[in-house]
Design goal:
Chain A is an alpha/beta fold. Chain A has helices at 48-55, 77-86, 102-112, 118-131, 147-159, 177-192, 204-210, 228-233, 238-248; strands spanning 8-19, 22-33, 37-41, 63-68, 71-72, 87-90, 165-169, 196-200, 213-218, 221-226. Chain A starts with 7 loop residues before the first strand and ends with a helix. Classes of the chains: A alpha/beta, B mainly alpha. The structure holds adenosine-5'-triphosphate and magnesium ion (MG).
């Protein structure tokens, strides 16, 4: 599989996370190389969201280590700050700021967190709005946009921070079927640009086309990893086979 | 509204044949003077209430924030403040600030500032509860999105959470302003020259409590209806913003 680099940018080692008595992650390890596209799938509650939320510090892992671009996430304010800048995240529910226009949603981070001048931030935002193909919506409020457009704005908002890694947590699960493709197209375009990506998604077409590595999770563990070809045609574990049966034939 | 005024008029005409509206008849010179005297209290009623609510909003916000902290010690600061301040009647607080505090602090305080401090203090506990509820009503995803674009705590609050929270609590803040306008009448007991005090003073010289206090009732009624309309206009404008 084509990798634009072999340097490991995300190193996850024996990471555990519990919510009260419930173990959401049980010693998960995963390496992601620079420019690699990883697609994570697995049944509901298997810990997919928890895993990627640990990477940008939205959840605090209890055991193991997470290293992003040489910075070990120890939950000191400094490491968290340094990692947040490198990692962008797109959520299932978009989480746009409803009281700000599309343009303001995009420029808030560049202006406040990156210290950009407003004109520069506006220009940057318009560039990314064009990239997600909705520059004409710049002055609207998010509630006026369709779900697909909102998610594309959310992707552009993340890109405006110019991260080196993008995390996607089921970005198309909240969308009507006819809007899924416009979002997947944007993500595919992003993937071809060399962005390091971890996507939690059950869109198998997208996974086959874009993924360098498939990861299957179940009950807080990574059960199987592999290249998409082998993963979809000849998975090793029974659990993975059962899961793929469910999502492919239905 | 109309029914209420009609009822009031019937009640008034029904209870006595002796009308003394001349005391506030603007056609006569003394009536006009009296009326002007009554209305002149409006300035301090408004100034007192607006100053007090401005302070209490700031204090309320400062008290609300530790109430949202994960740290239980921080939360207890919020609880203790709210419970203590809420337990003291406003009138008692006014008396304590005006007569008690100077003794304690060894300085004298003007009637106006005593009133402002007492009203603001008492209201701040309610503002704190309103803000806490408002902030808690903002979805968790908003904090997560702010986190993901590297905003720090202050910027997250200032640009993402508070603007949404304030929109939601605007009706409640409007209620507090109305409440404050009414409660400012209590500051008359320490001699503040606001609406109620003016009315009391006129009653003492003119002996026409029914007419003077009726005017007083109408003054508050008009003032508060105007404020309510203003708050509703502001609410509509802020919501229109999001829908534009
Ligand atoms: N904040 C939380 N408090 C308690 N339990 C949680 C919390 N977040 C997640 N969990 C639990 O941890 C487990 C893993 O959750 P996670 O959201 O990572 O699953 P997922 O694989 O993303 O599932 P889904 O496909 O439904 O999104 C679930 O059983 C969930 O109930
Ligand atoms: Mg999930």
């Amino acid at each position: 599989m084509p990798l634009s680099g072999t340097e490991i940018v995300i190193q996850i080692e024996s990471v555990s996370k519990r919510f009260g008595d419930f173990e959401a992650l049980k010693g998960v390890s995963l390496d992601v190389a620079s420019g690699e596209r990883v697609v994570v799938c697995g049944p509901s509650g298997s810990g997919k969201s928890t895993l990627i939320r640990c990477i940008n510090g939205l959840e605090r892992h209890e055991a193991g280590t997470i290293t992003v671009d040489g910075i070990t996430l120890d939950h000191s304010a400094d490491s968290l700050k340094a990692i947040k800048v490198k990692v962008g995240m797109v959520f299932q529910q978009f989480n746009l700021f409803p009281h700000l226009t599309v343009l303001e949603n995009l420029t808030l981070g560049p202006i406040r967190a990156r210290g950009m001048a407003k004109e520069d931030a506006d220009a940057l935002a318009m560039r990314y709005l064009e990239r997600v193909r909705i520059p004409e919506q710049a002055d609207k409020y998010p509630s006026k946009l369709s779900g697909g457009q909102q998610q594309r704005v959310a992707i552009a908002r993340s890109l405006c921070m110019e991260p080196s890694i993008m995390l996607f947590d089921e970005p198309t699960s909240a969308l009507d079927p006819e809007m899924i493709n416009e979002v997947l197209d944007v993500m595919t375009e992003l993937a071809t640009s060399g962005m390091t990506m971890i996507c939690v998604t059950h869109e198998t077409g997208f996974a086959r086309k874009v993924a360098d590595k498939m990861v299957f999770m179940d009950q807080g563990e990574i059960v199987e990893t592999g290249d998409p070809e082998t993963f979809f045609t000849n998975p090793e574990s029974q659990r993975c086979r059962d899961f793929l049966d469910k999502i492919l034939h239905h | 509204m109309r029914v209420a005024i009609l009822a009031l008029a019937l009640m008034l005409t029904g209870c006595s044949g002796e009308w003394g509206w001349y005391v506030v008849n603007p056609m006569t010179e003394s009536g006009a003077t009296n009326l002007k005297f009554l209305l002149s209290g409006l300035y301090y009623t408004i100034l007192l209430s607006v100053t007090a609510i401005a302070i209490s909003i700031v204090v309320g916000l400062v008290i609300a924030l530790p109430g949202l902290a994960r740290n239980p010690y921080m939360r207890s600061i919020n609880r203790v403040y709210v419970e203590l301040v809420r337990a003291v009647p406003i009138l008692v607080l006014i008396l304590w600030v005006y007569y008690g505090m100077p003794q304690l602090a060894g300085l004298s305080i003007s009637v106006f500032w005593a009133g402002v401090i007492a009203l603001a203090l008492s209201d701040s506990a309610f503002e704190a509860e309103i803000f806490r509820a408002g902030i808690q009503s903002v979805a968790k995803g908003q904090y997560e999105a702010a986190h993901s674009i590297s905003l720090n705590y202050t910027d997250t609050m200032r640009f993402v959470i508070l603007p949404q929270a304030i929109r939601r609590v605007l009706p409640a803040l409007g209620n507090q302003l109305v409440y404050m306008l009414k409660m400012s009448s209590l500051v008359s007991v320490i001699g503040m020259q606001e609406l109620t005090r003016k009315a009391n003073e006129l009653v003492v010289t003119e002996y026409r409590p029914l007419e003077v206090y009726t005017i007083l009732v109408l003054e508050y009624l008009v003032l508060i209806l105007v404020v309510s309309a203003g708050v509703r206009w502001l609410e509509r404008r802020m919501q229109a913003d999001e829908r534009a």
